[in-house]
């Protein structure tokens, strides 16, 4: 078998599918383009190294737009980054805190990684938000690379390349790559474990010592990042495979004799340290109040019925989702095949649990996305997608629909929100829309692999428009950024203390400092009346209480400037006055 697996450069395709190098009489420019794309892909995939390098470059092009220009995003990203920032400020790398409160929802892994990345910039606690996003970017790149590796091991270089392209282009992973959170790095650890489980399952000869060590290191790091999620995904996969095989003998050689102690060495010291430091409150909060609350009820207004992820993933997993749907019939027919069954064992048990749990956020099902990409890639390799039916053509319309809605809709939204016309965004949107329509036209000619490649090429153009040009210009939405800029212009002195009444988003604390006081109108007045160089940010609804609390002293203060913005968390316009002693 060649590096391309069972499908040579000039395969004899099944009836109804054109041969790659055949030129039918009715050939036109679309057919010629499809031939060029598929031929180029095959040549690229003749080398594993070239394929990997090309894939990493493509992933970077998808992930980097907006990486350093989008302000801190509320609320989770800002909370994670601020907690990491406070570790550097306090020198305490065991406890996890947000201002004076605790943040006992996730273990310490991601905070340590964010601290390391911020320190590497040389700015430490003063590092900008992009420094805290570096672990997520690395995690996303690792996820793309590991998907390529698993696809190559399960099928061929081209299978891995197709699955990796889908991961790099997927909307959800692109979002997570730009957020200073846990999920991209968690996905990388899950993929490392799933790869090695596949090696055990497929080869039946055990893992080498380095691979065995990697298995247990990845498990340990995954637990330190997000607790039991990695154990759930890997354990459920193992259980389903063991039931099918009616044996666990194939698990021999997983290196548990040195791996389990290694896993304990990675995880246990911090869990013991945080337990002692907090009198075991961390476990009560993280397990009892956070995890169990999400399992029992729809926490933080994120409740949704079963089936929600099934519908939402059509958008969040785009473009993988479109081609996966077109591949479902083939996947079902091939469900007993070893590679297909492994991927289904990876997806289905965890997905069912995620659907049952009342609390739902789009990124919860991210661990299943690589398996969907791998199944889709195998179907593309087998030339077995169901594109020819009316249903298939309707589903395929999602390719240009998403491209047009995001490519043209977003610049129009910018006009309504900011009154700004962004020619670059419109130009990029038109190119993305055109590529999306071209991808659909190619698909309806039966050239599904070429259509998939074109749909992936839509992604970096869309993301350059959205993340690179539109999101940074949504000044009305980035209220904390506006407030910080205004405060820096009007603050009475260089080391001014700041209080905020009626606005308590974590991004404001990250931008203006850990000592920022979050209070109400009366509290802001008391804050200003105390001695010191101080500035108060007062939301309009708190203004009357603020002025009343100042009483006769109000004449000593002035409103230095006003800021207006649209708060996404709540969906309302807000106006703020920035008050200081008269100068």
**Roughly how much helix do the residues carry, as a percent range?**
55-70%
Report strand order across the widest sheet.
4-3-5-7-6
What kind of oligomer do you see?
A: single chain
Approximate shape: globular
Radius of gyration: 26 Å
Strand fraction: 5-15%
The residue ranges in which pLDDT falls below 50 over 5 or more consecutive positions are 1-23
**How many H/I helices?**
24
* Termini separation: 80 Å
What structural class is derived from the secondary structure elements? alpha/beta
Number of strands: 7
Largest sheet: 5 strands, mixed
Average pLDDT, rounded to a whole number, is: 92
Secondary structure elements and their pairing?
Blueprint: H1 29-44, H2 48-63, H3 76-90, E1 97-98, E2 101-102, H4 109-120, H5 129-154, H6 157-169, H7 171-177, H8 183-203, H9 209-226, H10 229-245, H11 256-277, H12 281-296, H13 308-316, H14 320-333, H15 338-356, H16 369-381, H17 390-396, H18 398-418, H19 423-443, H20 448-473, H21 479-490, E3 497-501, H22 506-512, E4 517-519, H23 521-529, E5 534-539, H24 540-550, E6 557-567, E7 572-581
Parallel strand pairs: 3-4, 3-5
Antiparallel strand pairs: 1-2, 5-7, 6-7
